[in-house]
Structure formats: C-alpha cells, structure tokens
Amino acid sequence: MDVDDLDWQFGRLSGVLMRIVDEVLDRGGLEALVEATREREDWFCAVGAVRGLCACGEFERAWAVVEPFVATGWQPAVRPGADVLLRWGRTSQALELARPGAGERAAYDAWRDYAEVLVEAGLVDEAIDVLARRPRDGRTLWTLITVTEGRGRDERVLELLGPIAEAFRRDPEQPGVRDPGDALSAQARVLERSGRVDEAIGLRAADAAAKRGGSTVDDYAELLAGHGRIDELRELATGRERYVAARPYVTALENLGRAAEAEVYLRGLIAARHPGWYENPLMELLIRQGRFDDAVKAVEHTFDDLYDGNLLQATMVLLAEQGRHDQALELTEGRSPEFLAENDAFWLRSNRWWLMGEAGRAGEAIAEVEALPADEVDDREQTIAWLLARDGRIEEAIARLRPLPGTRAATYLAELLVQQGRFAEAIAAVPGVAAQREEERRFWTRRVEHEEPSWSDPGEECHDDPWTSPDTAPWQ
After folding, report:
1. Taking each helix axis from N to C terminus, what angle separates 279-288 and 259-271, rounded to the nearest 10 degrees?
2. Taking 50 as the threshold, does the pLDDT of residue 475 lie above it?
C-alpha cells in the first residue's frame, strides 16, 4: 500500500469520488465496495465499505477492511479505525490506536483525533485535559468547543477560554499564543450554546466596536440575527457596517415574517448606490417569496455587464432551482453584442443546453449541439452523453462515454453505471489513483512545454465538479 498515493487521493479528493461511493452504498452495492477496497486499495471505497459494514453490525469485517490502512501508520485512517474498534466494544484498543506516539511533536491531526476518540469513549474530561496542554492556537480551541458540545462541560471550557480571550483583549500582540483572536469567537460560541446569550452578545458588541479579532463584526451580526435582535442588527445594517450586516438583517426580518421591510431596505441601498451588490440578496429574497418576474426585473440591468456585477448566471441557476427552466432559458436570448463579444460564446450555449436538458427538451439540445462544428463545442461527446441521459437514453449515453479519455468522463460513466445497478463495472471504470496522478502529471507537462500555466488542472476538475453528476449539467 503506497502511502504517498493515499496522501494524494485524500488531499485531492480523487480516486473513486465519495458521491459515487455513497450512491453505490445507498443502492445496495456494499460488497462491491469491499471487493474494490481489496483490489484497488482505494481509500474512499474503504470508507464506504466500513460505514456499510458497521451499519450491519459486521465490525470484524469492517476492521479487516480498514486495518491494512491503519497498519501503514497513515493518520487519516486512525479515526475511522478507532471508530470501528469503539463500536466493536474494543475501547482500550481504540484508545491505544488513537494515542499519538511522538509526544508534543505529534501532528495536530493526531491530537485532534485522540481527543475525539476519548470523547466517544466517554472520557470527556480526559479529552479536555489533552487539548488544554496543546498549543493554544485556533485549531485547538475550535476542536475543544466542537468535541465538548452537548457534553455538559461548558463551564469548564469557559474557564479555559476566558483567560485566553481576556489576555488577547488586553494585548492582541502578546507573545506565545498563536491565532488568539479565535478565542473571542470560541468564547462567544460556548456562552451562546450554554444559554448565556446576552453575555455573548455583549462581548461580541464590545469586540466588534474595538475591531478585535478580525471578523468579529460578521460574527456579531450573525449572532444578532440568530436570536432575532432586530434593533441592534438594524443599527449595524444602517451604519458603516451595512455591507457586513445587510444579509443577516434581511434574513432576520424574513424569519420574523417581515419580508416587505427587508425588500424596502435593500431597494433603498440600491437606489442610494451604496457599493455592495445588494441586487443579489434582493433577487434571492424575491425568489424565496415566489415573485419570479419581480426578481428578474430587479437584476436584469446587470445581465449585459462585462465584469463581476453580472447576475445573469446566478439568476438562471436560481430560477432553475425553482423548476422555472423555460423562464431561465429566455434570459440566454437577446444579450448585447458587447456582452457576446467579451464573453465566451461556449459559456452561454452550454448554459442553454443545460437548461434545455432540465426542461425536458434534451432532444432539441442534442440537435443544436450536433449541428455545430465539433471544435465549437467544449467536451462535445460528454455534453451529448449528458443530454442523452437526461432524455432517458442511458445506454446510448454509456456508449458515448466509454471511448472517451480522462478521469472526468470516466467518473460520469461510473455514475450512470451505478444508476443501472452495475456497481463493480462502475468502480472499475474509474482510473486508479496511480493513473489519475499520471494524467495530472501529463497535463502539467503539456502546460509547461506548450502553453501558459492554468489555475485549474484535471485533478481539480474531477473532484466535485458537477460535470460528473447525472443530475446536473456536465458543463456547469
């Protein structure tokens, strides 16, 4: 088992994607995941197999699946392995597995995992002791409040957080404490969850006014919104912090049944030309109210903008989410020559084909694609395959995908095969980690030798790209 390959797969979310694993498991393909783990040494297949086996109470088999990964000393396997042992009733073995072996020099992840396993074993105070001895950086503080949530230890946690937070308030530049501003957020979070909301809000207000801890204004606004404190929130949302507080204020008003006030507030900001792109939250608010025509009208003046303020695609996506595909399709038409010249024609076409596929007009979209020269359609064969699948022609889509090179096409092929219940075939269609790494290496070699470097690469594109989901357009 190659730990370097495991690190690459884990860090890149590659190999067999978790969404494929989840779908296989949901459709009854547990044994295919167990077999794939043995044959491919694929970590995400192992994770799915372990989850499925534990759900069936087959802890011995689950341990047999995860143990080869644990035996390598690879840290990401420790927590799943310990969880299996805990559920199997082997608490001492789980704690021994999770206990970091290199003292203070052990990685943060190892101490986090150990604390979590202690808590799951019922040793909450011991977990707090472990974290209290660790460097007081933001990661440790957030682990502390996460593992203790709902465990009846809030007062003890506050005793630890209070001195750190107060020291930071006195001297933000104090030596020896990394990321101490996180103590402010952590302290407020624990106060809130323990029922001391007024105290949390008071501290947040003071920290925000003094501009301590970086993003405390954002946190303060969210805290106010979460507890319906409209008066304090309105003060923020109508003052110098309006850009930060606008969305929480609108959400709070809407939650209180005062959507009309939220609309008046946003329209006022837009009319006053305050910077901040308030058209987008206004559009979202109107769509949530079912006022689709009003939503489009509120933002249509941005549709031919050439830069970041353009809300054309955001509007189409929101309309599509409401099942209004035909209305979204209308927005692809009538764009200005300047917009079409500045923006890639492929972008507008691909969105049009996606919407047609979702609207039950996949056959029309296929005809449009096939009528264009092949070099004018990005990923032409995969686009047609997606449309075929949306048209219910799954076998034709599979036939289109089989000869296509690359991980993205193979991943989409796998998802279609999973839908057909062909689990082993689906997993086998996805290139192994070594092959995916070689694909990425060749991509970057070509970039360096022949073209300017790109910010994206095949690894990123195949991680969680809707290209590979049968339920969304491959070009989105």
Report:
1. 160
2. no
